[in-house]
């Protein structure tokens, strides 16, 4: 288990419980059950307290937690017959973006998402979930394919942002993002997006210009990372806590602002502590939204998406 | 004390101080260091007469120099809610807005206008880098939507001049949401079969480049304009290597196939007229100074729009 900074007191208690149990295992006849169970209860209640009122900065840390389920985990858990489709037909296949045909409860869908990787090797291969222009162009191609065959599109958002690299710029990163957003808006099939971790700026919006956008309870979605914002507006990257606060990047604030449609609850202690049930909740949410959108005509789906974004920003947060 | 200090010096001093001397009479070209007289610089559209460096030009001056005889009508932009996030960094957001308004004399970072260029009716939207770095706010999004709607309603092309440091961070996610919103505006023009021409000026970066500024039917940039998504500093920090000369500048993008043209500011208007008229199937424009339009409608032999267009 990877503990976050604010989870340190929890780490101590759980560590003690683990120690006790280890001792009992090596010394037969030693009875620690009662004591260990007491520590477990204490840990559980502390966990509840910690996660009840996470600050925006703590939410950023949870959203980036390495043990949170990532795109690949969701695809493995929720979809069947996943058939990856690769390449942008121009330059390369971007491994930061997963995508392909799959079934969700037997219904064919096109699933596309950012994959961050889970260890050093896979993280490097996935470029930490930061897409290059090829990734957006692959997504455009897959969305277009889905559109022509009436297959709904599901996108899973989890990226620090677009990759700030030399080649990415030379190959038209900006244009690729703009076209991907444009493709989202033109789809005559339902488009559902779920922010499962980090929704980083243009790299996220290029896939999340959807009919319905849902966010996991402890995920974030922002125009800029708190660190980036702090270094620009506070001239001090260490002010990321203040920036995280000011940016209103939590699912709860974004729901109030009318930017997202649903919040998917995570179990106590976050998705990283109960991956299976979190993934199940995400699956149920996607399924429910797809059912809701199913009766809509192609025209209505485009109109619905346009109206949603054109009307956005009418509601502010009360002081 | 002699007559020089008593008489001549005051006389000389008064000679020089008599006229109200406006400040910033001279501008130093940041590229070549030439001192440029303000009138000369304005006449040359804020381009250095020595080295052709394109300096910033205010949104309003851009409109004045774009439209025939500097005549245009502003298009009203719906006002969004102010400070939706109650944002505060070292300063409160409304204070930053107010000081930008004081400095520029403008309401926000984009102006929308309609008028004629080379007797060709167009709608133009100009982003003002002087106003909080031209950053993309809800107002800017509304301005682009208003510009597109007006263009569609009047069946006119839209010419957009971009200039921005990126998103308006003080509007957080709602700034980001202007990417899809402005993309919808561009789609409205495409559906209506109207040309959408983007002129990218220095600098155009971030979410602005990654939405409406890269979706033009024709993409023109001013010389040496910085055009990018991630800025050169961020990239250098990430990849830890020196970037090539001219990286992310207009000419570099042209070489990499990201732009149609890089055009000197003094040729820009003619070029826009030429392109727009060809796309609209109109006759070639009459080059050179046109006589002022007749004021009395009776003086016009035919008052149909087609005749006026020379069809």
UniProtKB/TrEMBL annotation, chain A:
It catalyses: N(6)-carboxybiotinyl-L-lysyl-[protein] + acetyl-CoA = N(6)-biotinyl-L-lysyl-[protein] + malonyl-CoA. Pathway: Lipid metabolism; malonyl-CoA biosynthesis; malonyl-CoA from acetyl-CoA: step 1/1. One of its GO terms (cellular component) is acetyl-CoA carboxylase complex. This is Acetyl-coenzyme A carboxylase carboxyl transferase subunit alpha. Its main location: cytoplasm. HAMAP family: AcetylCoA_CT_alpha (MF_00823). It comes from the Bacteria. Belongs to the AccA family. The lineage of its organism: Bacteria, Pseudomonadati, Pseudomonadota, Alphaproteobacteria, Rhodobacterales. The keyword Lipid metabolism applies. One of its GO terms (biological process) is malonyl-CoA biosynthetic process. It comes from Silicimonas algicola. Residues 38-292 form the CoA carboxyltransferase C-terminal domain. GO terms for molecular function: acetyl-CoA carboxylase activity; ATP binding; carboxyl- or carbamoyltransferase activity. Keywords: ATP-binding, Cytoplasm, Fatty acid biosynthesis, Fatty acid metabolism, Lipid biosynthesis, Lipid metabolism, Nucleotide-binding, Transferase. PANTHER family: ACETYL-COENZYME A CARBOXYLASE CARBOXYL TRANSFERASE SUBUNIT ALPHA (PTHR42853), ACETYL-COENZYME A CARBOXYLASE CARBOXYL TRANSFERASE SUBUNIT ALPHA, CHLOROPLASTIC (PTHR42853:SF3). Pfam families: ACCA. It is found in: Cytoplasm. It is an enzyme of class 2 (transferase). The gene is accA. Gene3D superfamilies: 2-enoyl-CoA Hydratase, Chain A, domain 1. Its EC number is 2.1.3.15. Component of the acetyl coenzyme A carboxylase (ACC) complex. First, biotin carboxylase catalyzes the carboxylation of biotin on its carrier protein (BCCP) and then the CO(2) group is transferred by the carboxyltransferase to acetyl-CoA to form malonyl-CoA.
TrEMBL record, chain B:
The keyword Transit peptide does not apply. Gene3D superfamilies: 2-enoyl-CoA Hydratase, Chain A, domain 1. It comes from the Bacteria. It catalyses: N(6)-carboxybiotinyl-L-lysyl-[protein] + acetyl-CoA = N(6)-biotinyl-L-lysyl-[protein] + malonyl-CoA. Residues 25-294 form the CoA carboxyltransferase N-terminal domain. Its EC number is 2.1.3.15. PROSITE patterns: COA_CT_NTER. Component of the acetyl coenzyme A carboxylase (ACC) complex. Biotin carboxylase (BC) catalyzes the carboxylation of biotin on its carrier protein (BCCP) and then the CO(2) group is transferred by the transcarboxylase to acetyl-CoA to form malonyl-CoA. PANTHER family: ACETYL-COENZYME A CARBOXYLASE CARBOXYL TRANSFERASE SUBUNIT BETA, CHLOROPLASTIC. This is Acetyl-coenzyme A carboxylase carboxyl transferase subunit beta. It comes from Silicimonas algicola. The gene is accD.
């Amino acid at each position: 288990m990877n503990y976050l900074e604010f989870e340190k007191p929890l780490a101590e208690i759980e560590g003690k419980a683990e120690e006790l149990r280890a001792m009992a295992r090596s010394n037969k006849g030693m009875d620690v059950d009662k004591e260990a169970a007491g520590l477990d209860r204490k840990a559980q209640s502390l966990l509840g307290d910690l996660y009840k009122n996470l600050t925006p900065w703590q939410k950023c840390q949870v959203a980036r937690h390495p043990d949170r389920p990532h795109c690949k985990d969701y695809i493995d858990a929720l979809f069947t017959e996943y058939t990856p489709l690769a390449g942008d037909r121009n330059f390369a296949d971007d491994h930061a973006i997963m995508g392909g045909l799959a079934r969700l409860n037997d219904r064919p869908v096109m699933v596309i998402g950012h994959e961050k990787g889970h260890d050093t090797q896979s993280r490097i291969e996935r470029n930490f979930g930061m897409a290059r222009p090829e990734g957006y162009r692959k997504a455009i191609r897959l969305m277009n394919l889905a559109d022509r065959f009436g297959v709904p599109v599901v996108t899973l958002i989890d990226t620090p942002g677009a990759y700030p690299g030399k080649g990415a710029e030379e190959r038209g990163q900006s244009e690729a993002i703009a076209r991907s957003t444009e493709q989202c808006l033109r789809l005559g099939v339902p488009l559902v997006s779920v922010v499962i971790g980090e929704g980083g700026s243009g790299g996220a919006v290029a896939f999340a210009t959807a009919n319905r956008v849902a966010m996991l309870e402890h995920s974030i979605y922002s125009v800029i990372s708190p660190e980036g914002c702090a270094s620009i507006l506070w001239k001090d990257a260490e002010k990321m806590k203040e920036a995280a606060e000011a940016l209103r990047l939590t699912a709860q604030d974004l729901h109030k602002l009318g930017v997202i449609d649903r919040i998917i609850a995570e179990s106590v202690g976050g998705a990283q502590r109960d991956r299976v049930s979190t993934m199940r909740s995400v699956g149920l949410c996607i399924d429910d939204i797809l059912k809701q959108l199913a009766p809509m005509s192609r025209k209505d789906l485009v109109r619905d998406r346009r109206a949603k974004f054109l009307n956005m920003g009418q509601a502010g947060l009360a002081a | 004390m002699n007559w020089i200090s008593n008489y001549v010096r005051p006389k000389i001093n008064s000679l020089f101080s008599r006229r109200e001397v406006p400040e910033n009479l001279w501008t130093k070209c940041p590229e070549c260091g030439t001192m440029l007289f303000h009138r000369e610089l304005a006449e040359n559209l804020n381009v250095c007469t020595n080295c052709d460096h394109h300096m910033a030009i205010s949104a309003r001056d851009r409109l004045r120099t774009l439209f025939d005889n500097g005549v245009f009508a502003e298009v009203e932009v719906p006002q969004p809610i102010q400070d939706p996030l109650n944002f505060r960094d070292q300063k409160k957001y409304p204070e930053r807005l107010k000081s930008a308004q004081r400095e520029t004399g403008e309401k926000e970072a984009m102006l929308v206008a309609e008028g004629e260029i080379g007797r060709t009716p167009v709608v133009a939207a100009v982003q003002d880098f002087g106003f909080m770095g031209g950053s993309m706010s809800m107002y800017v999004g509304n301005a682009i939507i208003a510009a597109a709607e007006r263009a569609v309603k009047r069946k006119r092309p839209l010419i957009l001049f971009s200039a921005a440091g990126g998103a308006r961070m003080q509007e957080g996610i709602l700034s980001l949401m202007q990417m899809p919103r402005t993309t919808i505006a561009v789609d409205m023009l495409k559906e209506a079969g109207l040309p959408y021409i983007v002129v990218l000026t220095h600098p155009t970066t971030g979410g602005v480049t990654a939405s409406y500024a890269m979706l033009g039917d024709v993409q023109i940039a001013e010389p040496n304009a910085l055009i990018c998504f991630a800025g050169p500093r961020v990239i250098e920090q990430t990849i830890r290597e020196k970037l090539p000369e001219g990286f992310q500048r207009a000419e570099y993008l042209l070489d990499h196939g990201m732009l149609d043209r890089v055009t000197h500011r003094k040729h820009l208007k003619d070029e826009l007229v030429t392109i727009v008229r060809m796309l609209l199937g109109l006759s070639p424009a009459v080059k050179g100074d046109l006589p002022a339009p007749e004021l009395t409608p009776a003086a016009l032999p035919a008052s149909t729009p087609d005749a006026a267009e020379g069809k």
